Amino acid sequence: DQQVKQNSPSLSVQEGRISILNCDYTNSMFDYFLWYKKYPAEGPTFLISISSIKDKNEDGRFTVFLNKSAKHLSLHIVPSQPGDSAVYFCAAETNNNNDMRFGAGTRLTVKP
Amino acid sequence: NAGVTQTPKFQVLKTGQSMTLQCAQDMNHEYMSWYRQDPGMGLRLIHYSVGAGITDQGEVPNGYNVSRSTTEDFPLRLLSAAPSQTSVYFCASSPGPRGETQYFGPGTRLLVL
């Protein structure tokens, strides 16, 4: 039972354009959502998060949008850079992080 | 400051063999966790610890044991390896319960034949 789903296994965009990565969840108890970035042969690293009381959080080129009614969140990267090429994991947690669930990941490729 | 270290990086086991995946952190974090990553599944929590001497099961604990005798170390034991345990294993630590403070190790790739 995958409670967090990333339905696009891969995404390719041109450098300078916007990258939009999507994530859906089913558990209404999730109250905190995170995006992790993973390079090959490395562990995931935290990128950006959003609380369920907000609908948008921005950090530089990265913005996460949350639509609670649709149980959907998205990560926007503007402008995309070749160094952004990585696998991006969406994650969701309740007020106890030991319930954190991850999506399967989306591989982003940014072409020069 | 090494962060979270994991050994070995890669291991091949035969079905039924036992082994221990090592994880250590030098950040004095109370929380430590083990995840496995399988194709199409994302990361799934195996076991976690909220402090020395305290461990608990995560989403997929069967076939694995853990202990936490020190703050720094959190080994994961496979008592009798099975092909279904072929995966990439990540250890993580954090100072608190929220995932945004979680630091991951580089992973151990395990192949069980």
Task: Tell me about this structure.
The complex is a heterodimer of chains A (112) and B (113). With 112 residues, chain A is an all-beta fold. Chain A is built from no helices and eleven strands. The model of chain A has no long low-confidence stretch (mean pLDDT 94). In chain B, strands 2, 4, 5, 6, 9, 10 and 11 form a seven-stranded mixed sheet that branches. In chain B, strands 1-3-8-7 form a four-stranded antiparallel sheet, with no helix packed on it. The chains are: A mainly beta (112), B mainly beta (113).
Features:
heterodimer; A: 112 residues; 6-stranded mixed beta sheet; 5-stranded antiparallel beta sheet; B: 113 residues; 4-stranded antiparallel beta sheet; 0% helix; globular
Quickly describe the structure:
The complex is a heterodimer of chains A (112) and B (113). Chain A has 112 residues and is an all-beta fold. Chain A has strands at residues 4-5, 10-14, 19-25, 32-38, 45-51, 56-59, 62-67, 72-77, 86-93, 101-102, 106-111.
Shape of chain A: globular
pLDDT < 50 stretches of chain A: none
In whole angstroms, how far apart are the ends of chain A? 38 Å
Quaternary state of the chains: heterodimer
Largest sheet of chain B: 7 strands, mixed
The ordered string of helix (H) and strand (E) elements of chain B is EEEEEEEEEEE
Mean pLDDT of chain B: 94
Topology:
The complex is a heterodimer of chains A (112) and B (113).
Chain A: E1 4-5, E2 10-14, E3 19-25, E4 32-38, E5 45-51, E6 56-59, E7 62-67, E8 72-77, E9 86-93, E10 101-102, E11 106-111
Parallel strand pairs in A: 2-11
Antiparallel strand pairs in A: 1-3, 3-8, 4-5, 4-9, 6-7, 7-8, 9-10, 9-11
Chain B: E1 4-7, E2 10-13, E3 19-25, E4 31-38, E5 42-51, E6 54-57, E7 64-66, E8 76-78, E9 87-94, E10 103-104, E11 108-112
